[in-house]
Amino acid sequence: KAGVTQTPRYLIKTRGQQVTLSCSPISGHRSVSWYQQTPGQGLQFLFEYFSETQRNKGNFPGRFSGRQFSNSRSEMNVSTLELGDSALYLCASSLGGVEGEQYFGPGTRLTVT
Amino acid sequence: AQKVTQAQTEISVVEKEDVTLDCVYETRDTTYYLFWYKQPPSGELVFLIRRNSFDEQNEISGRYSWNFQKSTSSFNFTITASQVVDSAVYFCALRTDNAGNMLTFGGGTRLMVKP
Lengths: 113, 115
Prior knowledge:
The complex is a heterodimer of chains A (about 110) and B (about 120). Chain A has about 110 residues and is an all-beta fold. Chain A is about 0% helix and about 55% strand. Chain A contains no helices and eleven strands. In chain A, strands 2, 4, 5, 6, 9, 10 and 11 form a seven-stranded mixed sheet that branches. Chain A has a four-stranded antiparallel sheet with strand order 1-3-8-7, with no helix packed on it. The radius of gyration of chain A is 13 Å and the shape is globular. Chain B is about 0% helix and about 55% strand. With about 120 residues, chain B is mainly beta. The interface between A and B is medium-sized, with 27 and 25 residues.
């Protein structure tokens, strides 16, 4: 069974631009969560989507948004990029129940210049 | 609110030594789940283990073992006879019933195993 895939793997953007990251979960998984990893703040939860609905949201500004499609693939969008948005963005998929494990993709490394 | 603390930011050992990574958690919820993940240099978080709050049984998987103690709110991870391939950053994480699928991570422990 294929794992979680994320595209692109690397991205360089300029301040003020916007960016869209994509995540394809493991087949059969309906929940997709997004995390931001930075050296200063560590791993922080952005949001979770389940069956195309946002089920949970972390403490990030409205510039960070996401969506999920009927095939469970998810996209994350960051508008008006700031230097501080430079990070590794990780996507995790799971079946959806709270007991289940979350499996992570390789991440998208975003650099904002 | 929940919190996970990994006091050891970096550990260096020589191959074949045993090493224990500490994890202390805080939550007011009575039902919760604890996890360990490994992050090699490639960046992907690799799932290692999940423990439920109502199951304090310790677990052993090959060279890996986990010690869950609710009395001290700790979930420690021991690698026996460490190998160079164990070099990575290890994260402890907590999820509670009230927070859906949100994982709260500790700051991570960087383990370096030298030959």
